[in-house]
Design the sequence.
């Protein structure tokens, strides 16, 4: 756990002087103060993270963590778990929605097998398998405490390697059939959220599937009794390997003063675990969107994060995060390219 401890210790507060300087410049631009709303908020967040009042975005990278879930044995998903490795190959071959949207934005994709239940061969795949899928959390812990910690540290290492390779903005992506079930279980373990508010239709299960999902989560919480005061306990008992990996990615980004754009419900469950491990990581998180999963909005509210986009999406993969990259681009362009009142010879009211 040395890597995890060191990473958490390296997470420092945002640079307040850079935020104030960014605000001063925003107020000097040829517009009424605050009139660009969320774009201005993003400029200040990026300034605080990077220490630069006029921030710039360099290489953007989506890190997709892939893992399988033993709880699919309970009939909680509309798709069989064989789809996980099939979709990983699709990502690596450039055919998924995340590939299309990343190409549009010019963002890179890193795909990591942290816990797929079968072996995948592909030259572009990072294979860092902690375990061949989690165990069925409805019958016992999804994984051991040591496995959960190892998966977090794997996420840290993958993120830090991406940063060494020049990435200056990271986004979370995931693939794992059945992974809305552990995400809902994590939410319920950390809150008094009602089952109805925590559990959604995932990839599109029917009423019977939703009932099975509720039952599986109830059993998992009953059998495992995760301790909300111990984030690793919650993660190991009712989490997922890819969720743990993304927790590490988020913590590594914060420790390296890199913005981390959070995708959908599963990514936000990882953000919740990261926040419980280190509340200081929250200011580095940028909530890309709010999905159709009911629990997503609940976790965003718990974290105090305001989603940029409302697109009725529920795909995951990092798709919402990549769309939000465009908004970040717009924010930094406003700060760096817009004329000030003085530059433009326009009268200001202050």
Sequence:
């Amino acid at each position: 756990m040395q890597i995890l401890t060191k990473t958490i210790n390296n997470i420092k507060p945002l640079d307040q002087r850079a935020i104030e300087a960014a605000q001063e410049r925003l107020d000097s631009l040829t517009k009424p103060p605050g009139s660009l709303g969320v774009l201005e908020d993003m400029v200040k967040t990026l300034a605080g993270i990077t220490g630069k009042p006029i921030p710039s975005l360099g290489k953007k990278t989506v890190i997709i963590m892939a893992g399988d879930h033993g709880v699919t044995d309970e009939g909680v998903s509309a798709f069989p778990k064989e789809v996980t490795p099939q979709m990983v190959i699709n990502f690596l071959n450039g055919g998924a929605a995340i590939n299309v949207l990343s190409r549009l934005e010019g963002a890179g994709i890193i795909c990591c097998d942290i816990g797929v239940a079968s072996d995948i061969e592909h030259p572009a795949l990072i294979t860092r398998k902690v375990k061949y899928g989690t165990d069925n959390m409805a019958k016992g812990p999804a994984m051991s405490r040591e496995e959960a910690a190892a998966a977090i540290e794997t996420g840290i290492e993958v993120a830090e390697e991406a940063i060494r390779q020049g990435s200056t903005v990271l986004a979370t992506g995931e693939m794992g059939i059945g992974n809305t079930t552990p995400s809902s279980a994590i939410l319920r373990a950390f809150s008094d959220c009602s089952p109805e508010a925590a559990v959604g239709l995932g990839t599109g299960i029917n009423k019977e599937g939703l009932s099975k999902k509720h039952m599986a989560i109830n059993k998992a919480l009953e059998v495992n009794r995760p301790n909300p005061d111990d984030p690793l306990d919650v993660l190991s008992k009712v989490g997922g390997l890819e969720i743990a990996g993304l927790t590490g990615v988020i913590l590594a980004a914060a420790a390296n003063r890199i913005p981390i754009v959070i995708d959908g419900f599963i990514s936000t469950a990882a953000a919740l675990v990261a926040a419980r491990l280190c509340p200081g990581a929250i200011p580095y998180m940028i909530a890309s969107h709010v999905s159709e999963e009911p629990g997503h909005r609940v976790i965003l509210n718990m974290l105090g994060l305001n989603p940029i986009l409302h697109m009725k999406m529920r795909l995951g993969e990092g798709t919402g995060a990549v769309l939000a990259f465009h908004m970040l681009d717009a924010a930094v362009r406003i700060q760096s390219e817009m004329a000030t009142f003085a530059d433009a010879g326009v009268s200001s009211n202050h």
